[in-house]
């Protein structure tokens, strides 16, 4: 790999892969994968992509085998706690996908009434670092049993009394007779980077990529909203538009009391917003997606 190319590590296949590929695609990058499929090259920018297991990403980035990476915050924070390094990788920004929670879960018949109930109990988890940190914060002394996978079966097998595992919909817990009782860590995908300064060439590629990622993130929920409205309703309408800057207000030919209002809304526009706008006198309301945005 050339000195000048920025090396990014992403998950080869799993719950982060689709989000990573979509993000890179929305940044205008197409990845052509090598024959072994562990390595891809981007044509549009000097970027090389390494496709790894998510557990290896933080280490590859910290050790300078890669410059940047995308990983679950849960895995990254666990790595920081359990694998102390001289110069660990650093978090650059959250990316808004692969959201999940690391949760304590107990058998459904437990009348759970607080962390104190875990005193002296055994907790199975793949995240001993984050779990112990939470127990310490709660002032609870419990035994943490490390399990690499299938944590949810531990209470049934009497390996542990409770578990601490990643929860998304809660269906896995439910199917195993467990219920979530406390949130230990909230997670989403994060961009991480090597702690050392990049060469000037790599820094320039990194800056350009970051600018694109920020653009994708801002335009993800953003919508362009257009409507006609009574001139007198413009202040109230402006206030109701979610995350909007000052709107553009245009005269309408032959209708002195009415104007066209155009605005970029940076937050989701839901049906109830449209109903409120209508109640304020707006008509012909259009909500359009925004493909790209750069501040
Ligand atoms: O093979 P590789 O090591 O790369 O992948 P992996 O199997 O270790 O990880 P993977 O692909 O399962 O998850 C990657 C990352 O996605 C995690 O580190 C989290 O940051 C995030 N993520 C988001 C999840 C989930 N949602 C999720 N639901 N990771 C795991 N789960 C599992 C959870 O462990 C449990 O078994 O899904 C089950 C619970 O799901 P629900 O919907 O039933 O609650
Ligand atoms: Zn993994």
Sheet of most strands: 7 strands, mixed
**Which structural class should the secondary elements be placed in?**
alpha+beta
The level 1 CATH classification of the largest domain is: Alpha Beta
Number of helices: 8
| CATH-scheme architecture of the largest domain | 3-Layer(aba) Sandwich
Radius of gyration: 24 Å
CATH topology of the largest domain: D-Maltodextrin-Binding Protein, domain 2
Mean pLDDT rating: 94
Q: What is the general shape?
A: flat
Spans of 5+ residues with little confidence (pLDDT < 50)? none
The strand count comes to 16
- Looking at CATH, the homologous superfamily of the largest domain is Periplasmic binding protein-like II
What binds here, in terms of ligands, is: phosphoribosyl ATP, zinc ion
Describe the protein's topology.
Elements: E1 6-11, H1 17-26, E2 31-33, E3 39-42, E4 47-52, H2 54-62, E5 68-72, H3 73-82, E6 90-94, E7 100-107, E8 122-125, H4 128-138, E9 143-146, E10 162-167, H5 171-175, E11 178-187, E12 189-193, H6 200-220, E13 223-230, H7 234-240, E14 248-251, E15 258-265, H8 271-279, E16 283-289
Parallel strand pairs: 1-4, 1-5, 8-9, 8-10
Antiparallel strand pairs: 2-3, 3-4, 5-12, 6-12, 7-10, 7-11, 13-15, 13-16, 14-15
